[in-house]
Fold CTF18 protein.
Amino acid sequence: RRRVLEASQQLTEIINNETSAENPETSEDMELVDEEESSQHCLWVDKFTPRRYMELLSDDYTNRCLLKWLKLWDTVVFGKEKAVKKAKPSTEARQPFSQPKEQQNKWKTKVQLTEEILEAELDQHKRPKYKVALLCGPPGLGKTTLAHVIARHAGYNAVEMNASDDRSPEVFKTRIEAATQMRSVLGTHEKPNCLIIDEIDGAPTASINVLLNIIHRKDVEGEAGAGTARRRRREGGLLLRPIICICNDQ
């Protein structure tokens, strides 16, 4: 068995060396492959999991929508200004003959409504209108993989927690605030956190209410009074990081 293992390792090194010599531009990809094959007991689901946006096999429209929503946080997280799109002249020409807003929304497709939500104006704190994205679908669809790949692609450090494990609302609140309000410490490469809450459909009602309270916190800067300031410090600050929730049962 030892001789077979040594022979297989030598063959693997020879194949890798020949491939890197033929394709020098793919040396970085080969390093990733070497890291994956270094573990002897590596499951196929881990070995072939997507690590880049272009490797995702999930629905392309869902991938683009989630990435577009995550990029809406760039203003408040990275300080980047949102690009302003110019209105199409054809839309302006048809404006006087347009139907009432309720009737317009009635005949719009799901794709058009989703695009409008993603292109909505930011709030007064430069945050998107919807603070949480919800990915739902049967097990094995690639929801968690999609969340991690998109978060890394957008420049975040993906922090995952399982809502079914943390049954206590106090622990749930502490973990959410730690992930969304504290900076990740990764040596010289510090990235803002993107919180991924898995199995949110298994969380108790009290935990869901805690999450909603964190999302709906408002800035009381204009309100005077020491009591208000103390209450705000006790409750915590504004939500300034994106949260992606994952569930099987919507």
Summary: Residues 131-219+237-249 form a domain with the Rossmann fold fold (CATH 3.40.50.300).
